[in-house]
Every structure is written in C-alpha cells, then in structure tokens.
Amino acid sequence: MKRTAKIVRVGAEKTGISQKTGMKWTVRELDIAWQEQGFNGEPYEQSACVQVHGELDEQLLRKAMTEGTLMDVRMFFRLSANEGRSFNNIKCYLPEGYEVKPL
User: Fold this and answer.
1) d(Cα 93, Cα 98) in Å, to the nearest integer?
2) What confidence tens digit (pLDDT) does each residue in 59-100 have?
3) What is the mean pLDDT of residues 30-50?
4) How many CB atoms lie within 10 A of CB 32?
C-alpha cells in the first residue's frame, strides 16, 4: 500500500547478525501518520508503527519529523504467530535518500 505520510516518532536502531545467513541486519521502528477519507467524505488520521530495514540517516529522519515532511512510503502488512498469539508486522520502504550509502 502506498501512502503519503509523515514521521511522528523515530525509534532506536536495532542490529544483529542473522543466524541463517551470517549477515548483519539493521531495523528501525518509525511511527508514521497519514490522512484517509471516510465514506462521508470527512478526513481522518491513520497511524502505524512500521519497521524499516537497512541503515538510515537518523539526522535526516529527525529533520523530516520536526518539519512534518510528507513523503510517499510503501507499506506491506503481514501477520506473525508466536505461542498461539498473532502480531502485526508492517514493513515500510521510505523514498530514496533516507538510507545510509556504503563508503
């Protein structure tokens, strides 16, 4: 799903090493919000806590959050189950320019 959203909160970066591949992974949680239009035509705000994979430019994320920058994001929804409970998993892709480029 593609939405024009703004960043509401920048979470901490988490890193680790994949047990399957041995490769390093990085993920950061962001709270984002966007406007939808109801059946009656009235606008209302939607929001979600999403996971963004890869190294991101934290300074640029915080600047976008402070300025209320609107950006086109793509979100993918999935369920994961653990010990008989289900959890939402929302993966998000930001526009180009927010990721850290390798040296």
Assistant:
1) 10
2) 999 999 999 999 999 999 999 888 889 999 999 999 988 887
3) 95
4) 23
Residue 101 has pLDDT above 80, yes or no: no
| Position 14 pLDDT exceeds 80 | yes
Q: Are 11 and 29 in contact (CB under 8 A)?
A: yes
42-78 exposure pattern, b = at least 16 Cβ within 10 A, e = fewer: eeeeeebebebeebbeeeebeebbeeeeebebebeee
Which residue segments constitute the domains of the chain, with CATH numbers given? 2-58+68-93 (2.40.50)
Whole-number Å distance between alpha carbons of 36 and 91: 19
pLDDT of residue 75: 96
Pairwise CA distance, residues 57 & 9, whole Å: 14
Q: Which residue type does 21 have? A: T
